[in-house]
User: Fold these one by one.
Assistant:
Number 1:
Amino acid sequence: MKKNNIPGFVELAPVVLTLILGLSSVATAANYDATYDLFCNDCIDWQDIGAFTDEWLGDCNLVNNWCGGADFSEDGKVDFVDFGLLGQYWWSGFLDEPEDVNWLDVMSSENLQNWQQPAKLDEFVGVHPRYLLTAADVTALKSKIASAGTYQDIWLNVVKPKADNLKSQNPPSKYWDEDDMRDAGQGIPYMALAYLLTEDSNYLDGANHWMTTICGYPEWDGDRSLGAAQCLWGVSLQQR
């Protein structure tokens, strides 16, 4: 991996979204809210996931009806804020709860096999970083953490100390334990962000070490929990 390639995971976003939603707890029929029924079939299901990912990272406004309704927060972008809102109503509208979802079935489902990248994401191809942050965002953040204020406080009291602590450690090793795997996945982005803001290769080496180590585990808490989703998220942010 090149040191200037700490990308996001635009290509993997639909997979991550589908995996995490498949692992989430289900809502009840009484929780149904038509606001989140993008496919308009009186329930929140995989067809709504397809409609949602088609608008992922879209520029939203009143003219396009907030990206066809996918920008639930109406903040101008379809992102994880909206994903969190959609997740609260997952599988609502049904009279019966769904059978337990096996992520291997989800990953091989027809929805994923037929998924095509929306044209609006073409501008991000080959651009790094590109998902949670752009190069312009990184430049702006470097300036903000150099001056007294909220950003500098977060950098000095949260992000940097966390990254400094993690870069010299091994990731949690209990691959069968959900809490350990959630910690493993959550640790990588701290080091990746610290590298982007400082260009200190020690942070990059630490992030790579965590990524390659956890990718060598035989499983992430059975590959079907929030621990597994967190590992997938952390690795996807770090790898190309």
Note: DSSP finds eleven helices and no strands in the chain.
Number 2:
Amino acid sequence: MRTPVLVSIAAAAVLAACSGGGAGTGASTGKDAGTGGGGSGGAPSGTGGAPACTEDCAKLPHVANDAACDAGACAFTCMPGWAHCTSRPGDGCETDLSQPATCGACGNACTPTSPICLPTAGGYACSTACFNGTPTLCAGMCTDTTTDPKNCGGCGNACPAPSTCTGGKCT
């Protein structure tokens, strides 16, 4: 069995073997992501002679609702903004594509000349500056400190739960 294969970046389709193995080869196993003989919700199964997955595919991080166990392999789609970038099948869609270290794709780090990862139509891209709507740079991310509960009124000023941020003040 092959280990995870990243098929595309936006809403990445992934076929991930549910047992150990080495790095992926980039080749598909030929199974359609999101289909297969798993139980409801991607639960492990071993019926019909098919091997069971060693974990509940639907409970992997940031996988879409289409996760299923198909002949011992988890088949799933990543939620928008997330990707599967490791060689560990059980990680699911562990990589946040909005971060400067993985801006828009696995391993796509923003450079010192374009250090900010910003949302674009259909993904994320590195940029040189923050723009209207999110004008303040906080820890490598552009934000609006008048509404961001993690940076309310200034970078790093988090509002306690269940507070929100209004006008730069926790309410």
Note: The chain has a mean pLDDT of 75.
Number 3:
Amino acid sequence: MSGRPGGGPPMRRGMGPGGMMGGMPAEKSKNFRASFGRLLARLRPEAPLIALVFVLGSGTRNIYIAITLVGWVSYTRIIRGEVLVAKRRDYVLAARAGGLSDFRILFRHLLPNVITQAIVFAMSDIVLDILAIVTLGYLGLGVQPPTPDWGTMIAEGQTFLTTHWELSTIPGVAVVVTALGLSLLADGLADLLRPE
């Protein structure tokens, strides 16, 4: 157990998923997951995303799979950073001194207090996901016809840019307006949820 009065040993490695596990243990040798995560974090998100879609094949389902496989790194880093800070706060120390299990501390006390930043980031991340899907559509790797896709519309409309400029312009404006709106929503959400 890690909750003895007077300060117990550090919380055990392997308790809790993803970034929460990364935040709880003390400094130890880097494992494969951490190394793989750092590799993805150094790359621009478009590079591994396009590579995955190329391997998996085009289509809505494969795009979602690729975005998930690439996007988890950022959320893990955010949660880990928040846990590293939160685990030193008084309410966590009090829970450990009270004899609560690592699992209970993680999911009942830490998670509700660290998930806020991930929610705020998710709103901004949606913008990047939309841009990634539009880019894939423009390259012909995105959502396939007859399902409409902004990237495909922009690519196909370029041929008629001098005669029917609206075919490419209107989807492009829709992308910009949507991205701007979601960015403003993310900023507002960050202000609303920011701790005093």
Note: Residues 102-138 form the longest helix (37 residues).
Number 4:
Amino acid sequence: MEYVMDWATIVLHVLTLLIVIASFLAIRDNRNQTKDALAEGRKQSQDALAIAREQIEQGKQPILIPLSPLPLTAVVGDLDSTVPELSVDLMNVGTGAALNIWGVIATPESFSRRPFSFSKEAFLSTSENRTVKLGLVKK
């Protein structure tokens, strides 16, 4: 009977050892899965932050619209090139300030070949309107 108890004890110890080894392997696999999940979560968070930053930057862009009509000649659609400059009222309807305003107004080739251009160093803040002078482009 003592002999059977010794074998039973040995078998019990071997089974306990196998359970301990299996537990350590499961813990190691779980740790690796957790590391992978954390890395994926960090990557998704960084991607989401990059998209949010881009949307914020895009939301700060100025949008300029003309408020006044262009002075036209009797020929429909032709700009009056007899004046040295034109005045155009612009309004910023965007969410960001227009810090450096540039533009060109050109007519189709069948009309006047002298486009008007402008460069305004002043800025136009949100919901502000200002008159911009357009000068004839020199040939």
Note: The chain has two domains: 1-59, 64-136.
